[in-house]
Amino acid sequence: MLRVAGKLTDDWAKFVPAKADFPTSPTPSRKSSGLVCNPLAENIKSFMVGTADLSPSVNLMWKGKVDFQHPGLKTSCGINGDYSGRYIHWGIREHAMASISNGLAAFNKGTIVPVTSSFFMFYIYAAPGIRMGALQGLQQIHIATHDSIGIGEDGPTHQPIAMASLYRAMPNILYIRPADSEETAGAYIAALAATSTPTIISLSRQNLEQYPQYSSREGVQKGAYVFIEKEEADVALIGVGAEMVFAVKTASLLESEFGLRVRVISFPCQRLFDQQSLEYKRQVLRYRSHTPRVVIEAYAVNGWERYADSGYSMSSFGHSLPGADAYKYFGFDEKVIAPKVSELVQDVKENGINTLRGEFRDLNVRSH
């Protein structure tokens, strides 16, 4: 009856793993996503999960899943199922995947919660369908893996430098980029709470450091939160998703070698943060302080000028290199970032914070 009414059971959150249940060793957030989504899909019959021909990569095959397809269809690869199945093999059809998911979500809203999945770059093909889902106020969860220059040798064709800007700007969409497993859990909780909004959860291919001492699923649901507090800070670093590691390591280096006090802010979702009270936003970003804010993210920096004074970002397409080498090639290394941030802080100390007002500074400008 609850499913017909378009509602989840009151105790659905019990299927989301606790922080203590997540690995503490470096873990790809696409794997973290599977640790969260698979028990939800197994136990919540509203979930209709599918992928654009990337089942082994997106980690969404739960134990005992049944594929949705004609019961008489027998494949050489062993994909067999029937019409009771809740796992859809969409093939390489991202536009169709997102658009048909709109129909599933629109049918008696809440009865079916579609979960799609593909590489983040390929969600550019799905953009018209996702936009229509947002326009119609439909609940969907889009799992976008391989979301950074850290994906490796596939190179710039697969590295989604500008995709986040597109979806952050699109009305009525939650684009959430979690930094570790705990934040990934928070992203799913936010997505299930957003009953009239599509959600894109943006995930890494590569291992990410885990921060159980800092990360918070509750913080994710507020869009941004203080990751590492420091009173009377000289600078605040904003870390996002897979690049949180550079914010944390740069903060440590600035303190140990440059004598600076550094706050670190996690900022997984701009739209959720915008929905918070002015008091909360001031508490996190300290708009009226004399502390400059620097966002570190290997994407186009567009949009961050609303929250930061400066950015360490990407201004070009990516490059075909092993993941760690790609980051170094584009200057994402705490030993490169820290001196540039220190120089910015010194400028503010000498000339006042107003030297940055109306002058967003890109600290990672590269010639093309």
Automatic annotation (TrEMBL):
Its cofactor is thiamine diphosphate; Mg(2+). Residues 27-210 form the Transketolase-like pyrimidine-binding domain. One of its GO terms (molecular function) is metal ion binding. It holds the Pfam family Transketolase_C_1. Belongs to the transketolase family. It catalyses: D-sedoheptulose 7-phosphate + D-glyceraldehyde 3-phosphate = aldehydo-D-ribose 5-phosphate + D-xylulose 5-phosphate. InterPro entries: THDP-binding, Transketo_C/PFOR_II, Transketolase-like_C_2, Transketolase-like_Pyr-bd, Transketolase_BS, Transketolase_fam. Gene3D superfamilies: 3.40.50.920, 3.40.50.970. GO terms for biological process: pentose-phosphate shunt. Its EC number is 2.2.1.1. Keywords: Magnesium, Metal-binding, Thiamine pyrophosphate, Transferase. GO terms for cellular component: cytosol; nucleus. This is transketolase.
